Amino acid sequence: MPDLYHLPETPSQTAGPYVHIGLIPHQAGFDIFANNFSGDIAGSGVSGERIVIEGRIFDASGHVAKDVLVETWQANAAGRYNHPADRQDKPLDQSFRGWARTGTDFETGVYRIKTIKPGAVVGRRSRKTMAPHINFWIVARGINVGLATRMYFSDEAAANASDPVLNIIEQPERRRTLIAERSARDGQTVYTFDLYLQGERETVFFDV
Amino acid sequence: MTPEYEFHQRDRDSHPPAFTPVYKTSVLRSPRIPLWSLQNSLSEVTGPSFSRDELGPLDNDLILNYAKDGKPIGEQTIVHGRVLDGNGRPVPNTLVEVWQANAGGRYRHRNDTYIAPIDPNFGGCGRMLTDDNGYYFFRTVKPGAYPFRNRVNSWRPAHIHFSVFGSGFAQRLITQMYFEGDPLIPHDSIIATIPDKSAAERLIAKLDLNASLPLECLAYRFDIVLRGSRQTLFENKLHGG
With a threshold of 0.90, does the pTM exceed it? Predict the structure, then answer.
């Protein structure tokens, strides 16, 4: 049955410069809750390849934004989301929620997330499988509505080439703004994912 | 596989655009290229959930959750309301997080240098899960107004920041709640980023005397609406999806 009425969504407002107080109080300079959310979500019981994602977020002048809150949402190593709407016939990993939260560093501007590499997830009906990816959502002072994008993996070239979301981006060179480069450092696998809010290298952001 | 439901297209007219020169910081932080519109996949309709045992018993009591040797200064205030979706259905068990300045307009944040004093008994943040009916409430002190660097004499009206999740990551929302009758509201550059005045008014919480505690605490009501969704089951069946 169609919905007979519709309530308008509450308008968004910027998260402001002090978003850390509410969402990551330790970065604001104090501790208040016994249990805190973090950017390190690859606990010892979680299955999958350990990876580090790090990067910086640039404004239109090339300046690094050092007050951004970054959240990520992803499937587990088998490619299944920990959510009842995901009914794929794949194993759930109850020790992995799939959600991380961190801030860009006040001095360096670098954000860092420790997680596992997700598996590929089924696409919409009659569309191809989605390449492994991590959903990003960022808010900050000066951002009026949270910005959504996706991070894909440089070592998944074949899967990326047939990804139904990357392929709707008209300009192939802009798809590259969503590919994180894989490297090795001190025995860790690091993906570098920089975001550009505006300018020649502007990241592809999505209206989801 | 198309998800069994998908969110209604976000009504961008009820939100601020990215580029709002009245709020100067947005100028260099706003994408210029239009957002690419995506039909929802599992990546958008799913999202994190949280359990009550992750939260502490005082997490939604800003009067007590950072109290050291007394209670914070300020007007004791209850803020309460419901989280609904665009279909009018309650959003149960969703995480609501709030943060604010103290009664003098000062934030407990290493980057805030306003001359108003830090309140030793006030942290300024709280969090809660909505109940089965989408209802939430918390207790705090009313925040003060404060100046911010936009124009030389820009002041923020008293406000509380809200972060809400919903059931899918595409519903994620951060906003600010204002207080009915605040004379700074018409002068505020942040509210002014919302072109639709009736949309902006939905951010103004109403005094709710019936919910106040006599001789103890005033109350304001603030309902939050996240995006609604529609079933896609018919499409799945039709095409054997």
Answer: yes
Q: What is the mean pLDDT of residues B145-156?
A: 97
Record: contact A142-B241, CB cut-off 8 A: no
CATH code for the domain of A73 = 2.60.130.10
| pLDDT in the model for residue A5 | 74
Q: What CA–CA distance (Å, rounded) separates A150 from A160?
A: 12
Global ipTM: 0.96
Residue A192 burial (10 A CB sphere; 0-12, 13-18, 19+): middle
Name the residue in chain B with its Cα closest to that of A207. B37
Asked if the model's pLDDT at residue A125 lies above 90, the reply is no
A20/B109 CB distance under 8 A? yes
Contacts of A126 in chain B (CB under 8 A): 239, 241
| A12 domain residue, yes or no | no
Q: How many domains does chain A have?
A: 1
Domain that holds residue A47: 19-30+42-196
Average pLDDT estimate for B31-38: 97
B199, closest residue in chain A (CA to CA):
A11
Burial of A164 (0-12, 13-18, 19+ CB in 10 A): middle
Residues A88 and B44: their CA atoms lie apart, in Å, by 15
Q: What percent of chain B has a predicted confidence (pLDDT) above 70?
A: 97
Under an 8 A CB cutoff, do B18 and A144 touch? yes
Using the beta-carbon criterion (under 8 Å), do B99 and A81 form an inter-chain contact? no
Asked, for residue A10, whether it belongs to a domain, the answer is no
Q: Any idea which residues of B carry the catalytic annotation?
A: 107, 146, 156, 159, 161
Question: Domains along chain B?
Answer: 5-239 (2.60.130.10)
